[in-house]
Specification:
By secondary structure, this protein is of the alpha/beta class. It has helices spanning 16-24, 48-64, 92-109, 124-136, 150-163, 177-186, 206-215, 234-252; strands spanning 29-34, 67-69, 113-118, 143-146, 171-174, 226-227. It has one domain: Rossmann fold, CATH 3.40.50. The protein is built from eight helices and six strands; from the N terminus they run H-E-H-E-H-E-H-E-H-E-H-H-E-H. The strands form two sheets. Strands 2-1-3-4 form a four-stranded parallel β-sheet, sandwiched between helices. Strand 1, helix 2 (48-64) and strand 2 (67-69) form a beta-alpha-beta unit. 46% of the residues are buried. Residues 255-259 have low confidence and may be disordered. This is Creatininase family protein. It comes from Rhodopseudomonas palustris. GO terms for molecular function: hydrolase activity, acting on carbon-nitrogen (but not peptide) bonds, in linear amides; metal ion binding. Pfam families: Creatininase.
Length: 263
């Protein structure tokens, strides 16, 4: 980082003296990444969303400067994936309690801007609902911002996939060409290319979404994939990472609002 800020951006890898020094130098923004531990079809690992959130947080912090990264909250709200083995789901009130404790801890230490994003789109409605209460829990000079606009997020993936030469029809939002490509960049050994399967194609209607939230993802996709992983590549993954990082930074730093990103 410039202007004497520390090169290390991860709170958990710094000493308390190093964090205090960074705060004194004006490094008063912290990113809180949210993930999930849930099925991602037969070809991706359950930790995909947490890995994605980690990667986005690093890009945000290094590009913004004067920004540190809190430990990723790896497990999220994934009840609609519980029929698949291994999925772990927090209750919404549990996730809110963890986010509340993170935010009040960060505010106590002197962080003035807290930026929250999730690599798991299923956390978005829970995060949107809790945001006002998180803000009420800290003093008025602390700003808490969160990205919760799933439509803009997936549209950003579609544009990135198209620009990188991929098939936009394969974008569905879960274990699809975008997420599979992301993992080819972030954790390539976790991508099981011999297990690619097409999932639900054509996007989810409001009725589909209601059915999924009520009855689980198997009610709209038997294999847990929404979209298709076929055609995934590192080039598409890099394009998707860059595009969503741009979207988050623009939103957090005062660009076009997306979701309830402002105080």
């Amino acid at each position: 980082m410039a202007r004497g800020y520390p090169d290390q951006i991860y709170l958990e890898q710094m000493s308390h003296e190093e964090i205090a020094a960074a705060l004194a130098q004006g490094c008063t923004t912290v990113v809180i990444p949210l993930g999930a531990v849930e099925q991602h079809g037969p070809h991706l690992s359950l930790g995909m969303d947490a890995d994605h959130a980690d990667a986005l947080a690093e890009r945000i912090a290094r590009r913004r400067g004067a920004t540190l990264v809190a430990p990723t909250i790896k497990t999220g709200c994934s009840s609609h994936h519980l029929p698949f083995a291994g999925t772990i789901s927090l209750r919404p009130e549990t996730l809110e309690a963890i986010c509340l404790d993170y935010c009040t801890s960060m505010a106590r230490h002197g962080f003035k801007r807290i930026l929250i994003h999730s690599g798991h789109i299923g956390n978005f409605p829970v995060l949107k609902d809790m945001l006002g209460r998180l803000r009420e829990a800290v003093s008025s000079d602390v700003e808490i911002l969160a990205f919760t606009d799933s439509t803009t997020w997936i549209d950003t993936w579609r544009h990135a996939v198209r620009d990188a030469g991929g098939d936009v029809a394969a974008v569905g939002g879960h274990a699809d060409i975008a997420e599979t490509s992301l993992m080819m960049v972030i954790r390539p050994d976790s991508v099981r290319q011999d297990r690619f399967e097409v999932g639900h194609l054509g996007g989810l209607s409001e009725a589909d979404l209601e059915m999924m939230w009520k009855n689980g993802i198997r009610s709209v996709s038997a294999n847990g994939v929404i979209g298709s992983p076929f055609g995934a590549s590192r080039e598409i993954g890099e394009a998707c990472l860059a595009a969503v990082a741009d979207l988050l930074i623009e939103t957090f730093d005062g660009g076009t609002p997306a979701g309830d990103a402002r105080r």
